[in-house]
Design a protein that fits this description.
The complex is a heterodimer of chains A (about 280) and B (about 170).
Chain A (H helix, E strand, L loop, with lengths): L1 H9 L6 E12 L3 H8 L5 H4 L1 H8 L10 H11 L4 H6 L3 E3 L5 E4 L14 H14 L1 H8 L3 E6 L3 E4 L4 E9 L2 E11 L4 H14 L7 H15 L17 E2 L5 E2 L7 H15 L4 H5 L3
Antiparallel strand pairs in A: 1-7, 2-3, 2-9, 3-4, 4-5, 5-6, 6-7, 8-9
Chain B lengths: L17 H16 L3 H5 L2 E10 L12 E6 H11 L12 E12 L7 E13 L2 E16 L2 E11 L14
Parallel strand pairs in B: 1-6
Antiparallel strand pairs in B: 1-2, 3-4, 4-5, 5-6
The chains are: A alpha+beta (about 280), B alpha+beta (about 170).
């Protein structure tokens, strides 16, 4: 997990981050754990975000944009990658104490560092000037989507986003989300970060609103007495050890990271280190 | 704390007929309440923007995040999504009721068109829960042929920085 934290800072040409751009505060009537369960879930975008994927796919690109819509629509279209892609090409890794991260799935030149975009070209050369060619290349090759720091934080190092989860009660959660400015990066980079935050973390986002809806619905379902147990078994028989000491899913859609969080939760509740944590090193 | 440096608002321009603008705003509110979202987008100009700031007095939508900030392209996508049968956050649909009043015409900013300021109250009912929103609309309205079009719509919510559940229906 240290690599995710390092990645957040490594991406700043001057080696410093500045918290900037305001705070989203969203809330839902559900348990705090649901939020973290969603963030490393590669299975849901294809289904939960269907409406925004379809709307973005049908959008004409010659309609006026000041850059905001372009970033947002590209992100929504990326969510529409085929299910086989989500299953096989993203990657899910888990570590002791409930932490986990999901690999990145972006290949869009506006969203990830690609040299044919003028802003990224400027950024890339600022990075090379400050950090050298080899180190810049190493940093650009670290590709993370969400990194979850159990039990209350999640970040996107590649896109300069951080969320802090505040449990209010068993069925009420408030999440605060923050953006970071990369010191030494072109000004346009931060504008793109803001547009990106609006679409992935925004209270009025075309994407996040369907996630919030699902959290509310799950809480509603859990309040019934119809089911005593939740099944969190996807990938259970195929999870495998990771060379860095954790466990990873054979498929990226494995719920290994949820089982891993419950192991840690069990550890906090019983005062031991959790059954899973004992088997895992760092 | 009260901001003592704020300037007193100018009196409305009596030479412009506010009723024509008020009629337009009432029509717009009705389109939204009754779910005519495509017709609502058609009221906007080709280079329009729609903005719901997240901070009181927010200077711009570029350096700070926004509850909603759409250029024309994203606004079209936002509205297209509203008619997708798989928009789970609108299943069931919200019912809304808007009141627009206190309509005044603001001093020109030098940009084309007329800045119309109004107050609104919006009640949203969905799945046994009723939410109340209130605030100030700023419309920059321009003439296109015989029609009035929205070049910019800014929505200042009184609770813009509160923790909020998802905002799906446009304000």
């Amino acid at each position: 997990m240290k690599t995710s934290l390092d990645d957040m800072v490594d991406r700043a040409p001057d080696g410093e981050l500045e918290i900037a751009g305001g705070v989203f505060k969203h809330t839902y009537d559900g348990n705090w754990k649901l939020y973290l369960e969603n963030l490393c879930d590669a299975a849901h975008p294809w289904y939960t975000h269907r409406s925004s994927i379809a709307a973005a796919q049908q959008q004409k690109d010659d309609v006026f944009s000041d850059g905001t819509g372009e970033i947002a629509i590209r992100q929504m279209r990326q969510n529409g990658a085929p299910y086989s892609f989500w299953e096989n090409q993203v990657g899910i890794w888990t570590y002791a104490n409930g932490h986990s991260y999901l690999g990145d799935y972006h290949d869009d030149s506006k969203l990830v560092a690609a040299l044919n975009d003028p802003t990224f070209r400027e950024y890339h050369s600022a990075m090379e000037t400050k950090k050298g060619k080899a180190e810049t290349q190493r940093i650009m090759e670290v590709r993370r989507w969400n990194s979850n720091f159990y039990p209350n934080m999640s970040m996107m190092s590649q896109f300069q986003q951080l969320r802090v989860i505040h449990p209010i009660s068993v069925n009420k959660t408030v999440v605060h989300t923050y953006c970071f400015k990369l010191k030494g990066a072109p000004d346009q980079m931060f504008r793109n970060t803001v547009s990106f935050a609006n679409v992935v973390n925004g209270t009025g986002s075309l994407v996040l609103t369907d996630d919030l809806e699902i959290y509310n619905r799950i809480a509603l379902g859990l309040s019934s007495e119809g089911a005593e147990w939740l099944e969190i078994g996807r990938g259970f028989t195929s999870d495998e050890p990771d060379p860095h000491g954790g466990r990873k899913g054979k498929n990226s859609t494995s719920e290994v990271y949820i089982r891993n969080m419950f192991d840690a939760w069990r550890g906090y509740m019983f005062g031991d280190s959790g059954s899973g944590a004992k088997k895992q090193v760092a | 704390m009260l901001d003592k440096t704020k300037k007193i608002p100018a009196l409305p321009d009596a030479k412009l007929d506010v009723r024509a603008y008020e009629a337009f705003l009432i029509h717009e509110a009705r389109l939204l309440d009754e779910g005519f979202f495509d017709d609502w987008v058609a009221l906007f100009t080709d280079d329009a923007r729609y903005w719901v700031p997240i901070e009181a007095g927010q200077a711009d939508p570029f350096e700070t995040v926004s509850l909603m900030y759409d250029d024309r392209r994203l606004l079209e996508t936002r509205v297209r999504r509203l008619s997708d049968p798989r928009i789970y956050s609108q299943e069931p649909r919200s019912r809304t009721s808007r009141t627009v009043n206190n309509v005044t015409i603001e001093p020109s900013t030098g940009e084309p068109g007329v800045i119309v300021r109004s107050k609104f109250v919006l009640v949203e009912y969905r799945r046994e829960d009723q939410r109340l929103f209130a605030g100030t609309y700023f419309h920059r309205l321009v003439g296109e042929g015989n029609a009035m079009r929205i070049a910019m719509k800014k929505v200042e919510l009184v609770n813009c920085d509160a923790p909020l559940d998802g905002l799906v229906v446009p304000f």
